[in-house]
Amino acid sequence: MNRLLIATLMTSACTTIPRGQSAVDRVDVVGNHDVSGDDIEAKIATTDTPKFLYLFRGVVYDYALYDRHVLAYDLARIERYYRARGYYDAHARAARVLQQGDQHVRVEIVVDEGKPVKVREVHVRVDGSLLASEDARMRRDERSVLGQGARLDEDELAKAEKAIRRGLEDDGYAKVSVTSHADVDLATHAAIVTFDVRPAEKCVFGELRIEGLGTLPEHATRRTINIGRGEPYSRKALEQAQRRLLEQGVVSSVAIEPDLAHASPGVVPIVAHLEPSKLREIQLGGGFELDVLKTDMHLKAGWSDRNFLGDFRHFTASVSPGVVLYPLRLSYFQPPNELLPEEKSSVELRQPGFIEALTEGFVKPEINTYPVLVSETYVPDAPVIGYFEAKTTQGVTRSFGKLKATLSHTLQVEVPFTYSGPLDPTLTTLVISYVELQTILDLRNDAIHPRSGLYLGNDFQVAGLGGQPQDIRVQPEVRAYVPLGKRVTLAARATVGFVFPNNYQAGTDTRDVQIVFFRGFFSGGPTENRGYPLRGIGPFGESTLYNPLVNKCMPGQPADVCAVPLGGLSLWEASLEARIAIGGPFSGVVFCDTADVSAAVFTLHFDRPHLSCGLGARYDTPIGALRADVGYRIPGAQVFSGALEPTPTILGLPIAVQLGLGEAF
After folding, report:
1. What's the rounded mean pLDDT across residues 64-85?
2. Are the C-beta atoms of 519 and 469 separated by less than 8 Å?
3. What's the count of helices (H) and strands (E) in the chain, helices before strands?
4. For residue 156, which phi and psi values (nearest 5 degrees)?
5. Which ranges constitute the DSSP H helices of 508-656?
6. What sign does the CA torsion over 556, 560, 562, 566 have?
7. Phi and psi of 549, rounded to 5°?
8. Distance of alpha carbon 597 from alpha carbon 571, whole angstroms
9. Minimum mean pLDDT among 129-138, 260-269, 343-352, 655-664: which range?
10. How far is residue 18 from each of residues 15, 23, 65, 221, 596, measured CA to CA in Å?
11. Other C-beta atoms within 10 Å of 193: how many?
12. Is 50 exceeded by the pLDDT of residue 642?
């Protein structure tokens, strides 16, 4: 029955090649050197037949059929594309159609690129008056895109026009017009480019008109846009207003543009076109986690209102009850003998326009209960420690262009208990109070799927204004993204972290181990080093806090039974990965991660690289990419200092499997 069903599905999903026609199995472009073959193939209609699962043609996807008339037009398209890139002598000289069997062909297009046309001179003619500083910046903007000696590329010419226009719009010239033309000398393959600029007069913002408001409160919308009548005109101000509205989550799309049709001398009104989004949501779901530390099942319920009691207040409440199937895990795949209840619950209220129009205030109380499972090795009869956590964070956040700063205070109370077995008598309730300043400068082209740009962040904390731990904690981070062709993006991440304690230190003392667990650093896991489990990198030692049976450890006992992660005071991490677009929602990555955590203050050990490399798969969804990574620890590139660290394995292999939502960084 199952075989019949599979055969029926495969048959219904298959397509056939019409009689008298041929399918294109492959298209090759040869002779091209400066222009990518992928770019050329994206511009033509003759394409190869896609493969289902990259293996089977004619399954699910229709065959791409060969048409000699379409191919003839494609040769003309290629020559036009080359001309737009500055290759005026380029010719698509031939198209060979090679038979690949019955009703299957391979198409080979031969290109002669010729010599490109280069920009010999650039002239900017201004019909009007500009300040000296405005004129100088305009010319710098143009040269940064299309300078002397550059290839005459139509796209770059359009970008240069846009750069000039954008710079002058930011200087207040709302009615500026920019046109360009190029005089090409085919004999010398040189061009003279001229930009004609008409800035007109400087302008200020006029009346703001809002269209598509729907049920949104007008006063809150105007406050978020925050553009006053009479302020100097700026394109940047319009874009920032659009971003602020989108960040509120109350609109699905927004366009704020100058209304030049109703402009008067020196005054330009603006119009905001809005599409309101759903303001209230109910979330219901669940999940399942299986890794080398634990297995859990949990539910999640939540409710959010982005216009709570009006004024764009954002209220969110969520609760996530669950249970840990103890001691079931990847390294101990046996039926659980104990169920450990856990829960996460939180309420958050965010108030826009707090203190002033662009500042948002927030408060977020949380109550959490969870077991502390830090060792992948199961020790029978060992007590299982848990924490009841009451936590509240309140603060303010504000954006300054692409720089976002958040200042907050957090107070958390950690009450230890055991799910089973005795509690260490030296383990007491821990109160932590700290002030935190988070800054983010996001220069990426896209926050969800970045292809280029930089991300700079820093987390600075001062603990000790109440509570037991007294320290300073700082962790800067940098991320960079570089496109390598249309399908590949090179992504890199690096961070260091330091804790400067005043009244504790890293070690095996129960009180200090407990504090370092909450204030120190660990590495390993799906967003740090993917060749190690969570908290798998760092100082390990024998502590009764997380392994009360440590007193039973005898000489020669395996380290992974007695040793538990203790955390450290100094951290460094680095990651490099190539992200490869495969097709549709599927993509893959090739990555290498490296990291180390030291117990000493302001001490980085680069002779402990903990290097792991591996492969990953991604499936894009509306809430982020579903991610699966397998990291392999490179032999000889782990710990050279002889530090006590367990070496976790899966099926005897030095690997770790990481699952997550969203990219690692």
Report:
1. 90
2. yes
3. 9, 29
4. -70, -35
5. 510-519, 559-562
6. positive
7. -85, 10
8. 5
9. 655-664
10. 10, 9, 9, 58, 61
11. 22
12. no
Give the residues across from 118 on adjacent strands. 151, 190
Domains of the chain in sequence order:
2-112 (3.10.20.310), 118-198 (3.10.20.310), 204-276 (3.10.20.310), 281-423 (no CATH), 438-665 (2.40.160.50)
In the block, tokens 């894009």 appear at 620
State the amino acid at position 508 in one-letter form: T
CA atoms within 13 A on the CB side of 409: 6
Ranges of beta strands (E only) in 484-539 are: 488-501
By residue count, the chain amounts to: 665
Q: If we measure between CA atoms, which residue out of 129, 263, 100, 279 comes closest to residue 198? A: 129
Per the listing, tokens 């069903």 go with 5
Give the rounded distance of the alpha carbon of 324 from its chain centre: 30
Q: What interhelical angle do 132-145 and 154-170 show, nearest 10? A: 160
Residue 439 to residue 458: CA distance in whole angstroms: 5
Residue 605 neighbours by CB under 8 Å, 6+ apart: 596, 598, 641
DSSP 8-state symbol, 65: B
Tell me the mean pLDDT in the region 150-172.
94
Helix (H) or strand (E) holding 170: helix 154-170
Nearest-angstrom CA–CA distance, 56 and 60: 9
Q: Report how far residue 632's alpha carbon sits from residue 117's, in angstroms, rounded to the nearest whole number.
A: 49
Whole-model pTM: value is: 0.82
Long-range contacts of 317-320 (CB under 8 A, 24+ apart): 317/346, 317/347, 317/348, 318/283, 318/344, 318/345, 318/346, 319/343, 319/344, 319/345, 320/344, 320/345
The token pair that represents 304 in the structure block: 């959010």
Contacts of 21 (CB under 8 A, 6+ apart): 65, 66, 103
**Which pLDDT does position 240 carry in this prediction?**
92
Instruction: Give the residue ranges of DSSP H helices in 14-131.
Output: 37-41, 68-84
